[in-house]
Design a protein that fits this description.
Structural class: alpha/beta
Largest sheet: 8 strands, mixed
CATH superfamily of the largest domain: Alpha/Beta hydrolase fold, catalytic domain
Distance between the termini: 25 Å
Strand order of the largest sheet: 1-2-4-3-5-6-7-8
Number of helices: 11
Number of strands: 11
CATH architecture of the largest domain: 3-Layer(aba) Sandwich
Length: 403
């Protein structure tokens, strides 16, 4: 695979390092150089442009073709501060009828995202059923930190930022791949679902690509990175994302990072609405969930609804348990494929009365940097200038860095 040139990401609290010398960027270079300030500035600008072009060009060159039949493909991913150097991710593609030829002009695209600790389609809706029942290309993604997770030894759990960027890259790979070969599909029928951690990532892809999805179905997902989950505190849940409160630690959870990971933060809900989000967000959550606290989900629902967003919550109680679709009112609930059908058929069936469609252009097509979420000390920005998403953090100080 072609080597991908990437800009190194800043670890909070670290000075940005120059990629050639290891020094602290232009300031260190200036101390050692006799060049006039004008030329120093010009060289810095050229360097920045060079690395930006290398990043986009290398990624463009490395994108593979779509598989002809159901299969897995490895694509380039955005660099991540916990894994130096080029990074890749696996995308799982499941076509209607099992082949690329099964994609028709009315075929949609649908992410189906695995749970925390899973890979492929573990813990989410069955892609074969999705592809056949809803006439979609079902897409799974092994986003960052897929697979087994140990909070004592692994990096802190991402909880939806890079994970959603990865999932959106997987979606873009199929979207762009179909367009590149002139294969028509229904751009208005783009959906996402996921179970548990995949439900959280489904909510976050809608947050990071607010002008793309027609419907999102969250099955028992996390709504926010609350303190007990972030720091592994006893009480509501046994989940532990492995962060710490010490600002000197690399595991420190900054207020900005925590704010972004609350799907329903009021200011962010207002931003979603302002950007034109029209996705129907369907939530199915057990009232006795001891993994992903229902209180956080109810708070998120209230905030999203107050912002005027289209949210349809289903909070499952013991009275709803039928022994067939719903087996309990805890975390698993039952067969997530059947649960999705039960609560979302109306929106996903192509000929359904309430079939969900999005009318306007998607983020991949708009190619702008309008997706910006304010956090206590800066902004999280998702750039679509290259089509696929690239996330970064911009501090309130004049300069911005990747994060």
């Amino acid at each position: 695979m072609t080597r991908i040139l990437v800009r190194k990401e800043r670890i909070p609290g670290q000075e940005i390092q120059d990629p050639w010398t290891g020094s602290g960027g232009c300031r260190s270079y200036a101390k050692e150089s006799a060049l006039a300030p004008f030329w120093i500035a010009a060289m810095c600008l050229v360097g920045i442009l060079f690395w930006t072009v290398c990043l986009d060009t290398a990624n463009a060159e490395a994108w593979p073709d779509l598989p002809k039949t159901n299969g897995e493909v490895v694509i380039p991913a955005q660099d991540w501060q916990w894994q130096p150097g080029p990074r890749t991710l696996t995308v799982y593609v499941r076509y209607p009828q099992g082949t690329l030829e099964g994609v028709q002009p009315n075929t949609g695209l649908m992410l189906s995202l695995h749970n925390w600790g899973g890979t492929g389609f573990i813990g989410t809706a069955d892609p074969a059923v999705l592809a056949a029942r809803y006439n979609v290309v079902a897409i799974g993604v092994d986003y960052v930190q897929s697979g087994s997770y140990d909070p004592m030894h692994d990096p802190p759990y991402d909880f939806g930022w890079y994970q959603a960027l990865d999932a959106l890259r997987g979606l873009y790979f199929v979207w762009h791949g179909l367009e590149a070969i002139g294969k028509p599909f229904d751009h208005s029928r783009v959906y996402a679902t996921g179970g548990s951690g995949g439900g959280n990532v489904s909510l976050m892809v809608n947050k990071l690509a607010p002008r793309t999805f027609a419907c999102v179905i969250d099955l028992s997902g996390m709504a926010k990175l609350a303190d007990d989950i972030a720091f592994g505190l006893p009480g509501r849940t046994q989940a532990n994302a492995g962060y710490c409160r010490d600002p000197q630690s690399r595991r420190y959870l900054t207020p900005d990072d925590q704010a972004l990971r609350f799907v329903g933060l009021p200011d962010h809900a207002a931003t979603l609405k302002r950007l034109g989000n029209t996705a129907k967000v369907v939530l199915v959550h057990g009232v006795e969930d001891d993994s992903c606290p229902v209180e956080d989900v109810k708070e998120m629902v209230e905030n999203l609804q107050q912002a005027g967003l289209d949210v349809v919550p289903h909070f499952i109680t013991k009275a709803d348990v039928d022994g067939k679709v719903l087996k309990d009112c805890r975390h698993s609930l039952g067969d997530r494929t059947l649960i999705l059908q039960h609560f979302a058929d109306t929106y996903l069936l192509p000929d359904g009365i309430g079939a969900a469609h999005r009318k306007d252009k998607a983020d991949f097509e708009l190619r702008d940097e309008c997706v910006r979420y304010k956090t206590p000390d800066g902004y999280f920005v998702v750039s679509y200038t290259s089509g696929y998403p690239v996330g970064r953090y911009e501090a309130d100080a004049p300069t911005g860095t990747l994060r």
